């Protein structure tokens, strides 16, 4: 009888360790994804308003995981256009220069072999959305949302950060 009770107790402890290890791993992924999303937003904060955008050539080939995100609206797939094809509220075309920098990519993968590499060597996908928003009676804003997904299961979102950028006199 004592062996049965001891066996049940040991099995319960082993199950709780397994559950705890799973929770710690998920928390680690969420923490890393939040840092990746925040660093991506910080890259945009270092740019002028006129430099915020994607080159239209980088929009081609985006998958439905990107094009069906709730950031873009309820329909799926949504039409995604480069900022160069959007018209500003004052009728001007936004101008920017994108090279190979990470802030110019609508979608990128961060893993152990990327530059910079994933801090925990786990694969993440960083999706960036830039939308034009014009509040009633206000001037046009750019809303940037960064979504970090599980690189092994794109249906799982680890982090989502949104920031709004306003055109200033100097930009």
If you had to describe this structure to a student in words, what would you say it looks like?
- The protein has one domain (2-166).
- 28% of the residues lie in helices and 20% in strands.
- The chain has 2 helices and 4 strands.
- It has helices at 2-45, 64-67; strands spanning 107-110, 124-133, 141-150, 157-166.
- It has a 4-stranded antiparallel beta sheet, covered by helices on one side.
- Strand 3 (141-150) and strand 4 form a beta hairpin.
- The longest helix has 44 residues, at 2-45.
Note the overall shape.
elongated
Please report the number of helical segments: 2
Which oligomeric state applies?
A: single chain
* Mean of residue pLDDT values: 80
Task: Provide the structure class.
Answer: alpha+beta
End-to-end gap: 78 Å
Placed side by side, the strands forming the largest sheet appear as 1-2-3-4
Order of helices and strands: HHEEEE
Number of domains: 1
Q: Over the alpha carbons, how many angstroms does the gyration radius reach?
A: 21 Å
Keywords:
single chain, 171 residues, alpha+beta, four-stranded antiparallel beta sheet, elongated
What's the gist of this structure?
With 171 residues, the protein is of the alpha+beta class.
